[in-house]
Design a protein that fits this description.
The chain has 2 domains: 3-43, Arc Repressor Mutant, subunit A, CATH 1.10.10; 63-131, Alpha-Beta Plaits (2-Layer Sandwich). 35% of the residues lie in helices and 21% in strands. The chain has helices at 3-14, 20-27, 31-43, 79-82, 108-119; strands spanning 63-71, 87-92, 99-105, 124-131. It has a 4-stranded antiparallel β-sheet, with helices on one face. Strand 2 (87-92) and strand 3 form a beta hairpin. Helix 1 (3-14) packs across helix 2 (20-27) and helix 2 (20-27) packs across helix 3 (31-43). The protein is elongated and about 55 Å long.
């Protein structure tokens, strides 16, 4: 990636719906060059997908939970866990726990239903859960 790619990415991070023409105008890079570079960034895997930033409360995802998880050695999480839409991010971490999971739920009842089933998974040893009380900054 060079400086032009970074300039284009900055524009897409501000608004992923920006048209090639709009990006070209703002960056003073020719539209055909912008298009080619975006295509290459997608092919190279730098851009994984284009998405939207939601207002959590208005989208029914206002109950945000962070969970530390200790797993059994050499565990591979089940497809059931990985495909659950409420699980937004999973990170492998160092320290006492193996994973940090960010989840979004509609409310405490939705979370409670999830956590009862989650803790029953055989690959999960222990969890430590924290509920977010305010969103100070959240980016995609």
């Amino acid at each position: 990636m060079d400086k032009k790619d970074q300039i284009i990415l900055t524009q897409l991070l501000e608004d992923s719906r920006s048209s090639v023409r709009s990006i070209a105008k703002k960056t003073k890079i020719r539209p055909s060059t912008v298009h080619q570079r975006i295509t290459k960034l997608k092919q190279d895997g730098v851009i994984e997908k284009f998405t939207v930033k939601l207002d959590n409360a208005k989208a029914g995802q206002g109950f945000i939970v962070f969970m530390f998880v200790k797993t059994k050695p050499s565990v591979v999480l089940s497809k059931k866990i990985l495909s659950d839409k409420r699980i937004r991010e999973i990170f492998g971490i160092t320290g006492e726990y193996d994973l940090l999971i960010k989840m979004k739920f509609s409310d405490v009842v939705d979370f409670n239903d999830f956590i009862i089933k989650f803790r029953a998974e055989e690959e999960v040893e222990t969890t430590h859960t924290m509920v977010a009380t305010a969103t100070i900054k959240e980016e995609l």
